[in-house]
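Example record

Each entry pairs one chain with its bound ligand, zinc ion.
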Amino acid sequence: MALRTPSSSPSVGHALASWATIALALAVALVPPDLLAAPVPAPAEAVAALPAAPVIRPAPVALRASGPQADDAVAGAERAMPAIARRLKVPVLMYHYVSEVPAAEAGSPGARDLRVPPTFFAQHLEFLRGAGYHTVTAPQLWAALNSRAELPDHPILLTFDDGYADAYQSVMPLLLQYGFTGTFFITVNLVGRPGYVTWDQVRAMSAAGMDIESHAMDHVSMAKRAAASLRSQLADSRRILSERTGTDVRFFAYPAGEYGDEAIAAAAAAGYDGAFLKSGGVLQSPEWAFMLRRRCRRTTRCRSPRS
Ligand SMILES: [Zn+2]
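Structure tokens for the complex follow.
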């Protein structure tokens, strides 16, 4: 036998239905019309099944304040501006050591592959200055690719991987001498080890206008790496470098130039704007955000597995 419920009684059911109608009419009368017009929230499953909506960015705001907080606000507003993608030819040179080959490694091809002597590097800078080049940083390149900023004539990025001690001791003084800036991809767990920069030096470089970006927690390949490890290598290094420098680290260079679809997805999920390869030419595009190109001719031998 079916269970009877109060609403199954015709008289009680009718009374309840009448009260429900009156209550609904009262509710409708009391609710502002614009709220009634709002769409009914879709069930979670339906929302999940919808294709991703385009990101709607707020219009840029005029900023008049000054000081560090205003700088943060300007950076935030620049990121919020509508992006109009474009392709630009901007060489990004990849360096490693700027030092003489140590006597103990004189016979090692690997030691030569990753090095340019300081005198040779100074000649590079002299040539670049004479040819009218202007150095820009990774965030500046990114802003230009998205039409949020203009680049100076003959823009170029000088990048230095791994965080060797000579980055602070030799590279930065020479760059400053020429009025240039550099982008330094730092491997977090190498900082402070013999032959590498210290955190004090990383902070000093950032304070001097050098662009500090991530080269992972450890100098390991980002290809065929487990998801959890990719997350840690990318997200933890970004967080730690951002905390240590007080800047928003948003660019990555794949150790040894090795990456895969999973690494690209993990880099995007970790909040990076882009990532650099170790070769590929000079044409840059935001469509290749996680495959930004570099050149290594006469700055590093790209075939070296340590690059
Ligand atoms: Zn490297």
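Residues 55 and 102 are 52 Å apart (CA to CA).
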